[in-house]
Write a structure and sequence with these properties.
The complex is a heterodimer of chains A (about 400) and B (about 500).
Chain A (H helix, E strand, L loop, with lengths): L6 H13 L4 E4 L15 E4 L6 E5 L4 E5 L4 H10 L2 E2 L8 H4 L7 H6 L7 H4 L2 H4 E8 L4 E5 L11 H5 L7 E9 L1 E2 L3 E9 L2 H12 L7 E6 H6 L8 E9 L1 H17 L4 E5 L1 H12 L10 E7 L4 H11 L3 E5 L4 E6 L3 H13 L3 E7 L16 H14 L15
Helix pairs in contact in A: 12-13
Chain B lengths: L7 H5 L1 H9 L7 E2 L2 H5 L15 E3 L4 H14 L2 E5 L15 E5 L6 E5 L4 E4 L5 H8 L4 E2 L12 H7 L6 H4 L6 E7 L5 E5 L10 H5 L8 E8 L1 E2 L3 E9 L2 H13 L6 E6 H11 L9 E9 L1 H17 L4 E4 L3 H12 L1 H8 L2 E4 L9 H15 L3 E6 L4 E8 L6 H18 L18 H4 L2 H14 L17 H5 L17
Parallel strand pairs in B: 2-4, 3-4
Antiparallel strand pairs in B: 1-2, 5-6, 6-10, 7-11, 8-9, 8-10, 12-14, 12-15, 13-14, 13-17, 16-18, 17-18
The chains are: A alpha+beta (about 400), B alpha+beta (about 500).
């Protein structure tokens, strides 16, 4: 397997592959190979040697790092300056049975974002620029090393979430943010999904700056060690300086008493962080059998989607992003995913992805939301603009892409 | 500024083209008279003017799609236009292109508090979004200074920012969905009321594409609850380098202000003469820091910021104690452009970004260039994110001064790139910075961007002559194995 040291190596390998009509699978630490489809490939292209922090300027909120650098190494470096990757990338090693959290390149390639995505943005919002070799075997760069930049097309957005189907990326520049000085979570009890989503909407219609919002059904909350009487537990995370967090918590407790349900608990920082890590990492569904699906939907549509699924299937779910992200564990096979997509279409649209495929369901149901015809043909043309011969991760996302 | 050579055959067909377009839209929606077209001959970069072939003002997405389909079939170029406030010439007409104005797409379609978003047509103004939701305590965060006039469709095309984007992001970070009409007349819906899709982020690429990839016919924007409190500090420094360091110190201390602006001595005095905001006239640099959020947080952070500023050597600090005073602090900054307009017959507004730590070097460079070109420069910065707005003062009636001012501006932008920054932070490339693109990008970088363009618009019909200094045929860009210095076909001539 060719292990490249830099983009010149990558270009050589790619051009060689073009000439010999071979396809390549890009591989970092191999922690996310289970995401997406298995691409068609003849050789692996190992990018994990492209490691190291190139430049980090905490006062500029800018980090430049090679894409093969381990996420854990980056997070450790940022922690030294009291900063973080604000999009809160998930550690899926638990549910994907992989060895580590993988590389920053893998995080960006899958646009993997956690609970703070709701208020701070996704991975794609934090990539400021990159250097790469396209599937044509040509070097190019896009964006820059500064926070504010509209020069040329924003290819950073396109590269994020492209699952390595467009280019091999080396240096990436990422916006960093200060870590909040402290945090806590408030727990609200609600009778059902509808009142849970309404409770969250009321909180987001207040000026008390919730930073993350999840909904845990009673059984899932029990998995997380929360023994609550309510059918649904709304978890609201508050972050910031201590004075502010306490003040906002007081206001929200008051709202909780005033509204139906009420506040049923407060998690101090350590317990709050531990719970949110489990929410982020889908660890709360790790004990389930069958497949795990990730749904991105309009938050207010979540109750109807959940109701539709619960009426037909044995399923366990919970919600993040104020209801806009639904994690479902359900039976393997095509039927569950097809029903999810139908429910999604009936209730405002969105995206359903088969995230954790435990029984080769992907042979019967598309991993990613199928694209409407005009978008599918545009997507194919975009792929061809970067990788006309389909050398890189061919078929990883969709048929031919 | 050279634009692509107009196609005389298209120009010769003007009347029949107008007649055909007239069948696709309601009566009165095609502007063909010279005086009618005159109203559209420039955008916010008024140094450049050109009468369009025709102006068409569709009212529905079906009409817009039909117009695009017609233009595509006939090989007629298209220039999209929102409110025409671009500062980089993004909506500059072409003699052989139909200008499509989105002014009649002026309705807010859906205010959805449950999903915290607004669905609007592209011709709605930026500020109208906030006005529509402020009764419920919400607002739309991106606030370009033209927000009373600029359209949200134009905001998407330019990825507009504003003074609060340090904390709240640019348009791209506040956009949930778009409807897009391609040059072929296809209508695509990307995103929606949900956050992320697992597809190629075509909406992200459309944002800031300056009208070269498609026309946005609907937007879904995220709205936020208005912060409980806003307070500002007005801080004077005798030394620009110390001021620049202080800005970094605030962020290094873990504080992200809602806005952090800087002005230099010339800008301070011009603004003070104009609005009497109580700015320190003898300061070399003035910083305005705005903090927003819960009252206890803002009060605590104001004290911390004041401490940091003192330690960094501030010569004066004022803290707003009322909304009136906070607005007064901003009044000078917000009127900086007209204030500079009072002290000089003309000015050019530049828009580069640098890594903030290079600000002292940039000030030295600007002073040197000011000497070299014999022109004054006043500086207004979005200091928090390193986005510079140097205003180069000149008199267009003096022979050669416009050229000198443009050369001065180009040298500043060259300096931005050399210091690790970029050509444009928020105004866009348009025609204004088109020929400077090679300073920042290699030929290969730009070719890859143009290949993306080809995926959307294979015939280069959408807004040609903007952003890229050289146009390459898509067939040529698509060829593989072009070895360096040994091109199988020479580039098309530079226009």
């Amino acid at each position: 397997m060719p292990k490249i040291q830099n983009l010149d190596d990558a270009a050589t390998v790619i051009i060689d592959a073009q000439q010999n009509k071979r396809r390549l699978e890009l591989r970092g630490l191999g922690t996310k190979t289970a995401l997406g489809n298995q691409p068609e490939y003849d050789d692996c292209l190992d990018v994990s040697a492209m490691q190291g922090i190139i430049d980090y300027q905490p006062e500029e909120l800018v980090l430049t790092v090679r894409a093969g650098t381990a996420l854990s190494a980056i997070e450790a470096e940022l922690a030294k300056a009291n900063q973080m990757l604000a999009f809160e990338p998930a550690d899926l090693s638990g549910i994907l049975a992989s060895k580590s959290t993988g590389t920053i390149g893998g995080v960006l390639a899958t646009n993997l974002s956690g609970p703070r995505r709701l208020t701070a943005g996704a991975a794609r919002d934090f990539l400021l620029g990159f250097d790469a070799v396209s599937g044509r075997g040509e070097r190019f760069k896009s964006g820059g090393r500064v926070m504010k930049n509209v020069t040329g097309y924003d290819l950073s957005k396109l590269i994020c979430g492209s699952y390595g189907t467009l280019a091999v990326v080396d240096e990436v520049t990422i916006k960093t943010l200060p870590r909040p000085e402290t945090s806590l979570s408030l727990l609200f009890g609600c009778d059902d999904m509808k009142s849970a989503v309404a409770q969250i909407a009321a909180i987001f219609a207040s000026p008390h700056e919730p930073g993350a919002a999840a909904i845990l059904p009673q059984s899932v909350a029990a998995t997380a060690g929360l023994d609550m009487a309510a059918a649904m537990i709304v978890v609201i995370r508050l972050e910031g300086i201590a004075l502010s967090v306490e003040d906002r918590a007081a206001h929200l407790r008051h709202m909780g008493r005033r509204d139906r349900g009420g506040v049923v608990g407060t998690l101090p920082q350590a317990a709050s962080e531990a719970l949110w890590a489990r929410i982020r990492d889908v660890d709360l569904l790790a004990h389930t059998s069958g497949d795990i699906w990730k749904l991105s939907c309009a938050p207010a549509s979540a109750p109807a989607i959940v109701a539709a699924m619960e009426s037909s299937f044995e399923t366990t779910f919970y919600a993040d992003w104020a209801g806009g992200l639904l994690w479902f564990a359900g039976p393997s096979g095509a039927e569950f995913g097809t029903a999810l997509r139908a429910a999604l279409m009936t209730h405002g649209g969105g995206h359903a992805q088969l995230l954790c495929d435990r029984a080769m369901s992907k042979t019967n149901v598309p991993v990613f939301q199928p694209l409407p015809p005009a978008q599918a043909s545009l997507t194919k043309r975009v792929k061809a603009a970067f990788d006309p011969l389909g050398v890189l991760n061919f078929g990883r996302m969709h048929n031919g892409i | 500024m050279q634009m692509p050579e107009p196609d005389q055959q298209i120009i010769a067909r003007r009347e029949s083209i107008c007649a055909a377009l007239g069948k696709l839209v309601p009566a009165g929606s095609v502007v063909s008279s010279e005086e009618g077209r005159r109203a559209y001959d420039a955008d916010g970069l008024s140094a450049y003017r050109q009468l369009p072939l025709a102006v068409i003002l569709p009212e529905t997405v079906e009409q817009l799609a039909a117009v695009m389909k017609f233009c595509h079939a006939e090989g007629i170029k298209v220039v999209p236009r929102g409110a025409g406030t671009s500062l980089s010439g993004g909506a500059l007409p072409l003699a052989d292109a139909v200008l499509i104005g989105l002014g009649k797409f002026n309705r807010i379609l859906d205010i959805d508090y449950a999903n915290r978003c607004v669905v609007a047509q592209p011709g709605v103004t930026n500020l109208a979004i906030t006005h529509a939701v402020q009764g419920n305590g919400f607002y739309y965060a991106p606030d370009p200074s033209s927000q009373t006039a600029c359209s949200v469709g134009g905001n998407v095309a330019e990825n507009s920012g504003g003074v609060h984007c340090l904390k709240y992001g640019l348009t791209t970070n506040n956009l949930l969905g778009i409807e897009l009409v391609t040059i072929e007349g296809d209508v695509l819906r990307l995103g929606g009321k949900h956050l992320d899709s697992g597809d190629y982020d075509l909406m992200g690429v459309m944002t800031g594409s300056e009208g070269l990839l498609g026309i946005v016919s609907e937007v879904t924007l995220r709205i936020l609850q208005k912060p409980a409190t806003q307070r500002a500090l007005l801080v004077g420094f005798d030394d620009t380098a110390a001021a620049a360091t202080a800005v970094g110190d605030v962020i290094g201390a873990g504080i992200i202000p809602a806005g952090m602006e800087m002005m230099d001595g010339l800008a301070i005095n011009a603004a003070e003469d104009f609005v009497h905001a109580g700015y320190p006239r003898d300061a070399a640099a003035l910083i305005i820091v705005e903090l927003d959020g819960p009252e206890v947080e803002v009060d605590a952070l104001i004290d911390r910021v004041a401490g940091i500023m003192n330690k960094a050597g501030a010569s004066s600090i004022k803290i707003s104690t009322s909304e009136e005073e906070r607005n007064l602090f901003w009044a000078g900054r917000k009127s900086a452009f007209p204030a500079v307009g009072r002290i000089s017959p003309d000015y050019l507004c530049m828009d580069g970004t640098i890594p903030r730590r290079r600000l002292p070097d940039m000030m030295v460079l600007m002073a040197t260039l000011s000497q070299k070109y014999g022109l004054r420069v006043a500086n207004v910065f979005h200091a928090g994110d390193g986005n510079l707005h140097p205003l180069i003062l000149f008199d267009a009636n003096q022979p050669g001064e416009l050229q000198r001012a443009e050369d001065f501006g180009a040298d500043i932008l060259r300096g931005c790139v050399e210091m690790g920054g970029v050509l444009t932070g928020e105004h866009g490339v348009g025609v204004e910075k088109r020929d400077l693109m090679p300073i920042q990008f290699t030929e290969d970088d730009m070719k890859q961007q143009q290949r993306l363009k080809c995926a959307f618009d294979a015939d280069h019909l959408l807004n040609p002559g903007k952003v890229f200094p050289h146009l390459h045929r898509c067939a040529e860009l698509g060829r593989l194995h072009v070895h360096k210095g040994n091109m199988p076909f020479p580039d098309l001539p530079r226009f």
